[in-house]
Amino acid sequence: MKKTPAVRRLPSTVFYLRFVNWPSALNAFRAYLLLERSLSANTIEAYLNDVQKFVQYQEIEHLDIPPLAVRSGDLEKFILWVNNLGLEASSQSRLISGLRAFYKFLLVEDLLDDDPTELLESPRLRRKMPAVLSVHEIQAMLAAIDLSEPQGVRNRAIVETLYACGLRVSELVNLKISNLFLDAGFLKVVGKNNKERLVPVGSEAVKYMSMYLEHVRSRQENIRAGEENFVFLNRRGQHLTRIMVFYIVKELAEKAGVTKNISPHTFRHSFATHLVEGGADLKAVQDMLGHESITTTEIYTHLDTEYLKETIYLFHPRVRMANELKRKTE
User: Fold this and answer.
1) pTM
2) CA-CA distance, 197 to 178, in Å (whole number)?
3) I want to staple 66 with a disulfide (CB 3.0 to 4.6 A). Which of 20, 145, 189, 207 is the partner?
């Protein structure tokens, strides 16, 4: 007896039919991320782009699967497809994360009973150790700044703050004067998902930020309307962009002879690594960085190989016995 092919069942109510096509579903997803999750514009676009790639895959493969009809097998074929294209494991994980967020939204809105992303497995990622600057390299970069120029004073304050506080570059460029508590040694930072945290700031960063505010920032006359509360401004009176901070750091690295491939985020990695290697409590570092999970912070527990070799040389009993025997025979 010939079997009747399975038919994809979709919700039949008029309300649910609004979400059968991808454009309307993505528009509703955008509104949810903005209004319910309060995510930043960049994060929202990242999520939408992830889901949009699945839509593009359907177009290329001549498929027409509405959002509410997607099953786990469809998504598995999509991930296999992008894998065969040579997409890196980290990018594949990013796609899966976006799809999970989209279908979680449909579940929250009671548009689905089952989550098609539930059985999706993310590819195993090799944890890459971030580039870290040594204290000597940071000092060389700071010494390369010309403090006789107004922009030099600003740039010194920027680099000191990045390293002293471990800020994300987005947190730095959006830092507000009203959130500075320099007398108390703290900054109030608005991080991911608009979460606020207090971050201690060291005396050197306080010194150069105060110098910038008093001698450069207060004398800038061309400040644009709406930019008055931003700490770091460009020559046109607008707050700095992330790209501009990237160029500042790159130029300083070149002047100082630092050959590592670095970015503003490298100072955040260096801040955390130097604290952990100095014996700082991991939970305290997590709080200062604004990490939601302690596992994100644990990457900074790596130690350089020379330190490990020295530890073995000094404390392993077999190595110590061999060293003692060698000294006696010399």
Assistant:
1) 0.57
2) 14
3) 20
